[in-house]
Write a structure and sequence with these properties.
Chains A, B, C, D: One of its GO terms (cellular component) is mitochondrial intermembrane space. Four copies of one chain form a homotetramer. In chain A, about 40% of the residues lie in helices and about 15% in strands. Chain A is α/β, with parallel strands linked by helices. Chain A is globular, with a radius of gyration of 24 Å. At the A-B interface, β5, α17, α20 and α21 of A face α12, β12 and α16 of B.
Chain lengths: ~500, ~500, ~500, ~500
Amino acid sequence: MGDKIIDAAEVAKHNSAESCWVVLYGKVYDVTEFLPNHPGGTQIILQLAGKDATEEYDPIHPSGTLEENLKPEACLGTIDPETLSKISSKAVSERKAERTRTEAPAMSTLLNLDDIEAVAQKQISHKAWAYYYSAADDLFSKSLNNTVYRSILLRPRVFIDCTNCDLSVSVLGQHKLGLPIYVSPAAMARLAHPAGEAGISSACSKFNAMQIISNNASMTPEEIVKNASPDQVFGWQLYVQTERKKSENMLARINRLKPVKFVCLTLDAPVPGKREHDERTRAAVQTSSETSLLQASGGTPMEGGGGIGQQLFAGTDPSLTWKKTLPWLAEHTKLPIVLKGLQTHEDAYIASLHAPQVKAIILSNHGGRAMDTAPPAVHTLMEIRKYCPEVFERVEVWVDGGIKRGTDVVKALCLGAKCVGVGRAPLFGLGAGGVEGVERVLEILSAEAKTAMRLLGVEKVEELGMHHINARAVEQQIYDGPAGLNALMPLVKPKL
Amino acid sequence: MGDKIIDAAEVAKHNSAESCWVVLYGKVYDVTEFLPNHPGGTQIILQLAGKDATEEYDPIHPSGTLEENLKPEACLGTIDPETLSKISSKAVSERKAERTRTEAPAMSTLLNLDDIEAVAQKQISHKAWAYYYSAADDLFSKSLNNTVYRSILLRPRVFIDCTNCDLSVSVLGQHKLGLPIYVSPAAMARLAHPAGEAGISSACSKFNAMQIISNNASMTPEEIVKNASPDQVFGWQLYVQTERKKSENMLARINRLKPVKFVCLTLDAPVPGKREHDERTRAAVQTSSETSLLQASGGTPMEGGGGIGQQLFAGTDPSLTWKKTLPWLAEHTKLPIVLKGLQTHEDAYIASLHAPQVKAIILSNHGGRAMDTAPPAVHTLMEIRKYCPEVFERVEVWVDGGIKRGTDVVKALCLGAKCVGVGRAPLFGLGAGGVEGVERVLEILSAEAKTAMRLLGVEKVEELGMHHINARAVEQQIYDGPAGLNALMPLVKPKL
Amino acid sequence: MGDKIIDAAEVAKHNSAESCWVVLYGKVYDVTEFLPNHPGGTQIILQLAGKDATEEYDPIHPSGTLEENLKPEACLGTIDPETLSKISSKAVSERKAERTRTEAPAMSTLLNLDDIEAVAQKQISHKAWAYYYSAADDLFSKSLNNTVYRSILLRPRVFIDCTNCDLSVSVLGQHKLGLPIYVSPAAMARLAHPAGEAGISSACSKFNAMQIISNNASMTPEEIVKNASPDQVFGWQLYVQTERKKSENMLARINRLKPVKFVCLTLDAPVPGKREHDERTRAAVQTSSETSLLQASGGTPMEGGGGIGQQLFAGTDPSLTWKKTLPWLAEHTKLPIVLKGLQTHEDAYIASLHAPQVKAIILSNHGGRAMDTAPPAVHTLMEIRKYCPEVFERVEVWVDGGIKRGTDVVKALCLGAKCVGVGRAPLFGLGAGGVEGVERVLEILSAEAKTAMRLLGVEKVEELGMHHINARAVEQQIYDGPAGLNALMPLVKPKL
Amino acid sequence: MGDKIIDAAEVAKHNSAESCWVVLYGKVYDVTEFLPNHPGGTQIILQLAGKDATEEYDPIHPSGTLEENLKPEACLGTIDPETLSKISSKAVSERKAERTRTEAPAMSTLLNLDDIEAVAQKQISHKAWAYYYSAADDLFSKSLNNTVYRSILLRPRVFIDCTNCDLSVSVLGQHKLGLPIYVSPAAMARLAHPAGEAGISSACSKFNAMQIISNNASMTPEEIVKNASPDQVFGWQLYVQTERKKSENMLARINRLKPVKFVCLTLDAPVPGKREHDERTRAAVQTSSETSLLQASGGTPMEGGGGIGQQLFAGTDPSLTWKKTLPWLAEHTKLPIVLKGLQTHEDAYIASLHAPQVKAIILSNHGGRAMDTAPPAVHTLMEIRKYCPEVFERVEVWVDGGIKRGTDVVKALCLGAKCVGVGRAPLFGLGAGGVEGVERVLEILSAEAKTAMRLLGVEKVEELGMHHINARAVEQQIYDGPAGLNALMPLVKPKL
């Protein structure tokens, strides 16, 4: 690493693919050779070529990323701080202005998750909001994820002592949780708030809630679990990389972390979905960019040139199969496996045949972010009940997507879910009020879920059942077999 | 009680939990010791500490409340009237301004219940409106209560002499009523108008309509029935208190009141629902309060710290059961029991096994105020028809929730209801035009119901039946048994 | 009749129930004694007491009304024309201003019935619009009348020679019509345009379309059919009056009119519906009236004190029955009887047992004006198909309500209707452009219906059938028997 | 052809039906005699009488039209260019202004078909937009065409290697296409952009996509296929003309064009639909026209006097039948026949009996432009599956209508379609960005379809099937037989 003091004017000259320098944390780096290897694409770096890229870079790269990817000699020296202001990127300063324009209200005045989302939208950058908010195509599945819960009615019972109510559950056969509500793996928490994924961890510890760490977290797993007790329950999300060695190295790191109790292999996004809200922020940046490199390069990129979501996706392997991937995984970790992203009873059934390596499955359409018009988890839950209820006995069934109210949580539990994940809500909580905002999210959902359970005359989560809900409207919508003519289908024997 | 003349400036000094004085009806009280015992919470008093609290206090406390709760020595003396204006609470004066801003139109120009609600919203304070209007969570059940009636079609018959039409019904096997429409127990009528619950009683007497007195009425039962003839039919609503002695004392008072013909035990709200409209008015007051005590106290209260609804709820016992509560009740009153708040055929069936102590059940989701996505009474009516129609022979079935039109009343009667309650409408009537406004509500509903009956070719209420309606849309939505696969369920034998 | 010249100032003094004079067509009448006998109520006259009432009176009373109702001596003399302007009613002059504010576009630029309604709304007085537009309660049935057609799909066929298309039909076994579209009896055409019902007749003659003359027409039957050829087909609508003699006299007049081919006995409005748009215009007039007589009279009238609809209704007998009324009718006319307003298969079945006196039935919910949430005619058509299809063989089935497009006409014909009535559309046509506007309505519907038939591959009306439509959405909504549990019901044997 | 130089002032005098001159491409023509023979009607020419009509004429007439229709002596000479500006039509200049008001954004920033339509709406003339956008009556079928796809859910599968995805298909048993997406025959591409249908051809060649040339293309077939390789796949759409010889001549020309691989006989519009958006632009022009000839001519034309759609329609024969038309066609071409516009299973079944002359059928409701409330192609697909699945084995089934997303394409393929047509989208693409805009449309749909296939775990188009979708919502809506009482119908044996 060089010790030279470098003038910003000098840095500014190196603003092309031929010679590309950037400033990060006060140091000047020559990233010309790294350009083609950047998982997020060349484009995004070239826009910051010759500039201080720290504000853009920092919230989406965990610490250690620089060291892992650049050779020591890439560091050319230290930027002369007096000259630095000349090369700050305009987009960055704009975002800053945006970010501080309102003061957040007291979290206690926010009564529900919509309130929190509304505050977060004002607090965080438009780019971060667009990334969190976005979903595939026309947001149909994202919307259905929630409205399907609204179409299920609850059946309150009377004259049952409801003095006590206990939300605790056990997962994976051994881990006691304070809530049946966990934080789904969602990327880039530091876009919302500097506390990042570690802040979510801190909020979870207060409720003894489970957290699944995103493969694309903006902090390292080690940083996230640093302050956790050994009993706190974390999962670690794995997107298998085409470059297997990378995944194996990560698994080795994860195996060493006590609080991480399982690996969550995500299957519902083998290719990136099309998230137009997210992509438009990228397009906007490109359009306003002086260098206009995209235009110059010609063409109309569709695949892999989109928003944050598509950048994060780079390197993920689309060739996973039941036969190859699970055995490979068994070689590299003894942790239980949780499969995330199942959306049909057929796949749930196949997964259940892989117990006990697979201990739980997560029914999820990736928050509506992968394929639009994919079914909500409630549909898949009811498909399993209809075609292969034995799945519930072989593996735990978790669900996520669309949870806005404690009543939604309770309905999922009635349908057979063991626990229920929330993804966007904690991120919006983080954006609205940092750690306290995430706590508020968990507090609201817990209190609402408790009220619902007490009005159903239920003291413990495991007492909840199908007799507590009227899900007839949804029953009339779920998959009815390929024949489609109202015939009840026997289970289609799956090919393994 | 002290006779001293006290200066307002002196009162103003006692504005904390350490020493808390308030002025009520011209007297100064030291309520420091009472603070922790206030059923509505410490908070609400501390906001008025050192001030004249009369306007806040008066419309929500029946007379005698002071005497019941404070020792005589708590009264320190009389406020010096010349100094009083200094300590009037700002919130109060604001509310006053609000309340008088429009002149109400003649009641005869209001053609339907929506007209009346719209006028009331202008006439009453925002806080009162929010309390009446609010319902649980997203108001889904409140809305469904009404729209479910819209989805039922009426089947008019022709060439039937419809010169005469008689709305009278008998309830509880003996009491003749002029209308099958009664006033549901709804709290805090004096928030709408000084005439309060006694005003509602006066309007009911004109139509020989039944009224159920709220457990949280803003007047005493004795005041409410004072001008009633012995034949006028009242019920008294009981929320059983954790401190049983309080409930027993009330029952003793009720047993002595001739016009009260039955006790209505409310079961649909063993814990308070989450009514955000109501809670937001509380939050708004707290936010604007100079003392900002809530902030100081820290934390983010969720349970029991909400709006008027949650204050009223304090002290209610959530541990009632079929086995314990009905026998206890039998010890303290010989009046017939009406159980309010049943929402499943299972509970209706169990209740019917408690005849003849239980003479009627009220199918109700508490106006959508307890649990959102709870079923409307129409669903429960149709569930009973489907699974256990014998219930109709053992007990009377009353319903409430969502009634906006006379056709709604007639549809409920066709489905088997004996009579139909309205809760918010009389309160809005009271707010819009006092006693005359309540009369207008009953007049509109009666006239509309009569027109509907005549167009159906029906002269008497008891002739109405399932052949007068097409409820097929609702049939396709009601509970279909826990299996959920379109199988007709035999009655689930309930556990007692 | 007096010949005196009377000064307006003198007339103006007689403005109370004690002495009530009005000016009509330049003559002064003392109507004090007539006041209690006015079918439309005392109120409406008192508002015009002491004034020139001609503009209010003229468009809603057929000629001869004065002579029939007042004795000759009631005419006191002639108003001094120079003094007349002093006593013109304010409301009238306002209405005039309103009426002339826009110039109507060429009828040929109006492409559909909504265009025509929009123009009419600008051309006619608000009072007239409110009377035509209004329907019962919340306009649910009015709206459903139309949307139910939208939920039926057409099934176009290909490779069928559709060069020719013929809309003609025969009704009542003998009368050939150019169109299967007729003008329903709708009152008060002169409110829309001076051409009135005779103008509608003139437009119908151009298309050889049938017209049913309203019992409450603003012209006499004689005036309406004056220019008709003997072959033009009219029906005359009968509301049986409590004072039977009046109805018998009218029938005697009708029997003498060659072009009137049948009597249409209306059964769907034995009591007036509640039409709030209409009632509000009345309320508005009363409120702005200086004399404010309603206020003075006290009370809050609900029944019979409403808008134009309720005034017209006065005197109608609600006691008609199958047993009494049809034989009475047989005594007073030999014309075939068409029963209007059947809304259930039960009543259609009973009616069919009265063939051949009854030759046709009209399925109608009175344009949604009688009972809100009454079923649309399409429901009743499909009920008959389901429970008692033999009705189609015994009597002709006509329908009205909700027709906006030629495709709606064709769908009704596919379902078994012989012809299809339109009520509001010709009135709006009249309002938009007089006779030419009514022609445009018939022209648009005919052209649209022809296009639809040709695309279905159908040349003649009688070829249309159930295989040309997909009405499955509606089938799932129609009445399913009183048991309601998806059981197919045998026909309920009706009581006669 | 005359060589005289003619002054514009002289031309301007000939502006009536008696003597009608127009300027086209700098030449003056006397079209007086041609007036009654103009397929688009006399009206439209008279509006431009005495003026330079080039801008109006050019984009809707393929080259050669003048020569085909006018005798040489009709050309009177050359317009004096210095005088020309005096007779430019106002409407034209307005349209020009409109057309250039915005600069189109880079096609790569348009993320979906709605983006493209929005840009096109700004770029093209209002008249062109109205012609493309319009559909029959209330646009119900147009809307349903799209929303029916939204009501079908996709069923993503996991753990399937989705590295590869291949969109290629073979049609008509031999032609390999790069995409299962083709360009439907849509008229008047030069209204959108000068590149016209040849531009669409150029875009298609890049993707090896199929294009069907409209019978009413604004360029000749020869021009359109000029730059195509012999392997590029085109169809040519035939509307059979009443004047058979015209159609036969066209077929002879088509038979000589190598790239045209089949004839697409359109059956879904034997009479023109009523497209009010389109008709209103015509009405607007007529109204603003000084000559106001329509008014003068009197009457209220309904049939054939409408917008562009109706002009194009002139001359089409409505008398086609299975028996006469197919044999006639066999005499004039050996190309395979594709029948377009089938909307019932009955017609699909009959068509399948005409294999092998008929090689494919296109299920289409003409983009909702012929008959409103006609069923979407998805309904017809599912009808065929239900009643006569053997059709899929006898002929290829193609569909069009309502495609907005790649997921829509995939759903149609799952239901059994061989390929999927888009009509408006390429025209809007052309309007938004010329050839590049059409490419963008195909690129977006391809990329979206590929993503969907990969998330379904499908590599090749032919693997897609009913088990990949949940179409239960649609199954409940499709035709259920004429009995209508939920009985499954055996196939109605069709009359041939």
